[in-house]
Amino acid sequence: MHDDTVLLPPETQPDLPDGKPVVLIVDDTPDNLALLSETLQAAGYAVLVALDGQSALQRLARITPDAVLLDALMPGLDGFETCRLIKADPRNRHLPVIFMTALTDSEHVVQGFRVGGIDYVTKPVKPSEVSARIAAHVQRSRQQRQADMVLEIGMRAALIAAASGEIRWQSDLARQRLAWYEMARTPTDARNGDTGDLEPASASLASGCVDTASPLQHPLIEAGPRLPTTLEQWFVRWIEAGCDLQAAFETAADGVRRVARVLGPATRGEWVILLEEFDDAAHTSALASQFGLTAREAEVLLWLSRGKTNRDIGDILGMAPRTVNKHLEHVFGKLHVETRAAAAAIAAKASTRY
């Protein structure tokens, strides 16, 4: 079998190259696996293999390929039952499953379609036919997934970026918000109020997992529309640091906090990034007006609603923790609550407009 074919224990997480579509071949005959693996690798695919249905399901629990080439008749869990179980997982609704079978009568062909198969090829397989069918289904499946994603996130300030920093797609609102990152020069740090150039080191990283002082490990590819430099540097470092979905790039200027965070993968090597804006000045003013608070009390309540301790709030607003506590006593009285949690819940509910 070809050296690049991934044949590992099914519980192992395979290390696959970005950019290449991935095909999982499930067949209990090693000669068939070897022929199909070499054919598909020559056509530019990364190949995973499994010798039985159970191993295929274990493999799919860890990675979603772009297509599955599935033998219909195997000992134990046959191809039809394997396909039914694959399609029972909502994550695989667009995953094309192509059956391989020597059975050409209509009963078995129909059975394959009934359990979720999208196509079939007859044995002995013709490599050129298999490659052509897989290429067509992979392209159609990717287009469908992208269309679903665009519909889901199109009304938000979201974009899809490749690991290189190249923008593959962006909503109109994301395009507008990216313009601020292109033009910004001296925003205020969201945590302590200092000013400085808009660089990763001056923004706050929510999880602290990215070393913003370290140099980029990979050259950036110059092609197509790209993330603004600061976001691109943060994004590449975020990937190098392990893709922690809790991490966020945050800056603040003119009372507006801007947060970039990764929602998750779009396709292999591409990620969905959400650009959020929070008008802290308007929010503070609204809290003060709605609940009869002073400006300082409203600021304390705003940061309380974001889970900050008295010490944190004091650092942010430049006051002693005991002063923060005095403001909170007044806030609790005006909100008619007795606990921090209750006050935070009221403020959070009022914050949905900002």
From TrEMBL:
Name of one Pfam family that matches: GerE
For the HTH luxR-type domain, which residue ranges apply? 286-351
Which keywords has UniProt assigned to this entry? DNA-binding, Phosphoprotein, Transcription, Transcription regulation, Two-component regulatory system
One GO BP on record is:
regulation of DNA-templated transcription
What would you give as a GO molecular function for this chain, any one? phosphorelay response regulator activity
Q: Which InterPro entries match?
A: CheY-like_superfamily, Sig_transdc_resp-reg_C-effctor, Sig_transdc_resp-reg_receiver, Tscrpt_reg_LuxR_C, WalR-like, WH-like_DNA-bd_sf
Q: Name one GO cellular component term.
A: protein-DNA complex
Q: PTM 4-aspartylphosphate: list the residues.
A: 71
| Residues in Response regulatory domain copies | 22-138
Q: Which protein are we looking at?
A: DNA-binding response regulator
Q: Which organism is it from?
A: Paraburkholderia aromaticivorans
